[in-house]
UniProtKB/TrEMBL annotation:
Subcellular location: Cytoplasm, Cytoskeleton
PANTHER family xref list: ADF-H DOMAIN-CONTAINING PROTEIN (PTHR10829:SF56), CORTACTIN AND DREBRIN (PTHR10829)
GO CC, any one term: actin filament
UniProt-listed PROSITE patterns: ADF_H (PS51263)
GO biological process, one term: regulation of actin filament polymerization
Protein name: Actin depolymerizing protein
Family listed: Belongs to the actin-binding proteins ADF family. Coactosin subfamily.
Gene3D superfamilies: Severin
Keywords: Actin-binding, Cytoplasm, Cytoskeleton
InterPro entries: ADF-H (IPR002108), ADF-H/Gelsolin-like_dom_sf (IPR029006)
Length: 152
């Protein structure tokens, strides 16, 4: 197996990660995809300045990808917190061998994308809906002051 540095050798990946993490950058998400159907190397497929819905649009049903998203949570501007989400995407038509390799490779990706509040592994775009991810982030944060009838 290649070392993480080989798998993620593109210097643009590290830069995009820093951009998503930085409050000074407008970049709010990045998507890493495999260089080709047979390659294990990841490339920076896309970055964006929109919300998680914008990022989700870049994920194909036959693709495997990793994403990193900056999200703001809070009931008002005074309690707003920035949280990060790591996404492991396996589209519903992703090939079996790619899925099998991903379980190992996601550990290597986490050596580059190290800081996040929650990880979402999914093949269903509904699980990447902003509301669904926000609920996961709130649970990870602990205290939740806006329970609005939701069972926990």
């Amino acid at each position: 197996m290649p070392a993480p540095s080989d798998l993620l050798s593109d210097p643009e990946i590290a830069q995009a990660y820093e951009d998503v993490r930085s409050d000074k950058s407008e970049t709010t998400w990045l998507v890493l995809k495999y260089a080709s159907a047979t390659s294990d190397n990841l490339t920076l497929a896309k970055t964006g300045t929109g919300d998680i819905a914008e990022m989700t649009e870049t994920l194909g049903n036959d693709e495997a990808a990793y994403a990193y998203v900056r999200m703001k949570l809070g009931n008002d501007e005074y309690s707003e917190r920035t949280k990060f989400v790591f996404v492991v995407w396996q589209g519903p038509q992703t090939k079996i061998m790619r899925k099998a390799k991903m379980s190992f490779q996601s550990g290597q990706v986490k050596q580059v994308i190290r800081t996040y509040a929650v990880e979402v592994q999914t093949s269903d775009k509904k699980e990447l809906d902003a509301e669904a991810v926000t609920m996961k982030l709130r649970k990870a944060m602990g205290a939740n002051y806006d329970r609005q009838g939701t069972a926990y």
